[in-house]
Amino acid sequence: MTVPVTVPVDVPVDGIVVVDKPAGRTSHDVVAKVRRIAGTRRVGHAGTLDPMATGVLIIGVNRATRLLGHLAAHDKTYEATIRLGVTTVSDDADGEVVSTVAAAHVTDEDIAAGIAALTGDIEQVPSTVSAIKVGGVRSYARVRAGEDVALAARPVTVSAFDVLARRGDELDVRVSCTTGTYIRALARDLGASLGVGAHLTSLRRTRSGSFTVDEARTVDALEQAFTVVSLADAVARCFPRVDLDADTTRDLRHGRPIAATGRTGAVGAFDAATGDVLALVQDDGEVAKPLVVFAPA
After folding, report:
1. Backbone torsions φ then ψ of 49, nearest 5 degrees
2. Distance of alpha carbon 259 from alpha carbon 288, whole angstroms
3. What is the pTM for the complete model shown?
4. CA distance readout (Å), 260 to 202, 245, 252, 273, 286
5. C-beta separation of 245 from 11 below 8 A
6. List 50, 92, 189, 283, catalytic entry
7. pLDDT in tens, 130-162
8. How far is residue 55's CA from residue 208's CA, in Å, rounded to a whole number?
9. Which residues of 35-74 are buried (b: 16+ CB within 10 A; e: fewer)?
10. What is the structure's pLDDT at 149?
11. 266, 238 contact by CB (below 8 A)
12. Which of 44, 121, 213, 234 has the most CB atoms within 10 Å of its CB?
């Protein structure tokens, strides 16, 4: 694993900041805070966390903002608590309660069967109180305006859905899944399959791609020591790597295709002479085309 480097906040930096987002703050709140600490407007995040949620939020600074869309597509892991027997409008604890049903009769075997049906490749209907746009308007805005919103199901993959502990009507779970999976929708659908309803009472993202909560820093800690994974280290860590000679480096710096890498998906291309990261490329037949070209620092 690459080691994050602490840099003075008055030194321009390109890289990834792994933040441990606190509850009650939006992802945008965290971005605004990092902008102030880093002294630059060029800051963004990969993979939004709801205000209730905590844990790994990937922040890109300066040139690394161009990497964020590709990092957001990586798989993620969450630890969460599901409350059986209570349904809310938002499928989590921030929403108004819709119904309450006794759930004491639900057995561990019932829960295991319900979870099994929600594991693997599934079609998931996102929570209506979400940022998905319907006719150009956020779904949550339509719901809050009193509209009935019906979102289309979308394919997601839940590679692991495990119960860590049961405390009466509450389940502590761990979920690993593809991007775009709504953990609160899993809670909702589990409750529906058990006939008692359910919602999410806590959510913590423990992994986003190769970045884990063990290396995440709170915003307060970042104000004391601004800890960054350099752009080159982040690319090398998250994608396969190829090192290019001088002629190929020149072509790539000008956005021209290069010879195919023989790899699948996005590949980090580096200048073999300097170790600088040049771009993300992807094979297209006999050539590799640039997905993102990083301007020289």
Report:
1. -110, 135
2. 6
3. 0.90
4. 45, 14, 12, 20, 5
5. no
6. 50
7. 666 666 666 666 666 666 667 788 999 999 999
8. 10
9. bebbeeeebbbbbebbebbbbbbbbbbbbbbbbbebbbeb
10. 67
11. no
12. 234
Report the mean per-residue pLDDT for the chain. 90
Closest by Cα among 200, 172, 205 to 19: 205
Side chain identity at residue 67, one-letter code: L
C-alpha distances in Å from residue 210, one per residue of 56, 165, 257, 266 = 11, 26, 28, 15
CA distance 79 to 162: 10
Check if 247 is active-site: no
Measured distance CA(47)–CA(183) in Å, rounded = 13
Predicted pLDDT at 126? 86
What pLDDT digit, counting tens, does each position of 1-31 carry? 555 655 555 545 899 999 999 999 999 999 9
